[in-house]
Amino acid sequence: MNAHSHPQKNEQPWLERFINHLKNKISPPQLITVVFFGLIWIGAILLSMPFSSSDGHSIGLLNALFTSVSAVCVNGLTVLDTGADFSVVGQIIIMALIQVGGIGFMTLGVMVAILLGKKIGLRQRLVIQQTTQSTSAQGLVKLSLYMVLIVFVFESIATLILTLHWQSELGLGKAAYYALFHSVSAFNNAGFSLWSDSLMQFVGDPIVNLTLILLFIVGGLGYIVILDMLRKRSWRKLSLHSKVVLISSGVLILAGFLLIFLLESWNSATFGSLNTGERLLASLMQSTTPRSVGFNTINIGSMLAVSQFILIILMFIGAGSGGTGGGIKTNTLVILILSTIQTFRGGGQIHAFERKISQDSVMRALAVVMTALAFVLTVTLILTVTEDVAKDNFLAVLFEATSAFSTTGLSMGLTGELTTAGKIVVTITMFLGRLGPLTLAYALAQKKQSSKIGYPEDHILVG
């Protein structure tokens, strides 16, 4: 009897032991990385099937993988024409991947913690706080539900507006489908379009431009900022995070708008055929889209080199922390600027809006920028070799690398001409860019060990 009961006793808890092993050995960021890697491959397999192609033939595993990574990582770079080369089924798969990649990436940390254990302890909450980029470790489950609600509301309203606007031209059914696809793509800062020229045919259409720009901005601000604004409804009561994101986003959009308008007004290849109203809309669109969106209403490759470099800077900065966009984040930039100013003033406490900014935040910001800069330069160097570009086309390579890393999706035309090696490099760049330097660091980091040895302080000359 004991011989029969003993194996039974050991067979029962194997699943529990496995779950406990996951809880103890794998952190939520690591599991998020694995789950999204799996999601990308599921998307790639589905997109490589003949039913996903418009001509009934497979687009090939590499092209499918590139598209799946671009969709899940809400990037927007494409080696194929989304509207022409994919069937409706394929387009719906891409749209689903965008939606999961956009909101799922930020809510999955909460869901993973719930699945791995009945209770979310303080340690788990702190890790999830980092993965969701929340300013508080409280109410994370409620936050994830609010995220879904915000997405539904904004995408539904935008879909309705665009459906009514395109109905006379496309018909009700097609207009509703196109409106839904572009609303999902816009809110999640993905940049996928069903038109071959992105949105260039709507360069002077205020309804299309302003509707999608609103989605870009809201998605880029982040759910935490939106909820903070809805709850407090007062500038003075907003958190430091919200104030920093709102002001930095506004300054970057305004600066980009003014610079592009002034510079491209001298460029006959882009603004030559546009009237003043169309130029204003085009400048606004091109100043918001580098914030990790990817739509364009003018030919990016025809812009002046100085304008293209401005877009590179805006792409590298990206959107706000906790939003659907990529880049180093506006918060990171602000922290480093404040730190630099304070250093020139002689050091001391770094503060903004009567709030102290911790030294830990400064070090994290510095780590993010250095990691991102090193990664973009490395990818640029590799692409310069794999693509064998001419010396006068180096800016296009830097543009491509920055766009891939910041999950923007803009291109000067290099994406469609990428070699096999180039596609693999850009695919990896998009994936790592979406994970983000900090999330990747948390995923790979070992348990922190405190040193028992103290060393004497010394100085290194700087500058």
Unreliable spans are 7-12
Strand percentage? under 5%
Structural class: mainly alpha
The helix/strand order is HHHHHHHHHHHHHHHEEHHHH
Largest beta-sheet characterization: 2 strands, antiparallel
Task: Give the proportion of residues in helices.
Answer: 55-70%
Mean pLDDT: 82
Strand order in space, largest sheet: 1-2
Q: How many strand elements?
A: 2
The number of helices is: 19
Distance between the termini: 79 Å
Computed Rg: 23 Å
What does this structure look like?
The protein has helices at residues 2-11, 14-25, 28-48, 61-72, 82-85, 88-116, 122-132, 140-170, 172-187, 206-221, 223-232, 240-264, 276-288, 305-317, 330-344, 359-386, 394-405, 420-435, 437-444; strands at residues 351-352, 355-356. By secondary structure, the chain is mainly alpha-helical. Strands 1-2 form a two-stranded antiparallel sheet. A hairpin with a 2-residue loop joins strand 1 and strand 2. Helix 16 packs antiparallel against helix 18 (420-435). The longest helix is centred in the middle third of the chain and has 31 residues, at 140-170. The chain is globular and about 70 Å long.
Give the topology, please.
Elements: H1 2-11, H2 14-25, H3 28-48, H4 61-72, H5 82-85, H6 88-116, H7 122-132, H8 140-170, H9 172-187, H10 206-221, H11 223-232, H12 240-264, H13 276-288, H14 305-317, H15 330-344, E1 351-352, E2 355-356, H16 359-386, H17 394-405, H18 420-435, H19 437-444
Antiparallel strand pairs: 1-2
Helix pairs in contact: 3-4, 3-6, 3-19, 4-6, 4-18, 6-7, 6-8, 6-9, 8-9, 8-10, 9-10, 10-13, 11-12, 12-13, 12-14, 14-17, 15-16, 16-17, 16-18, 17-18
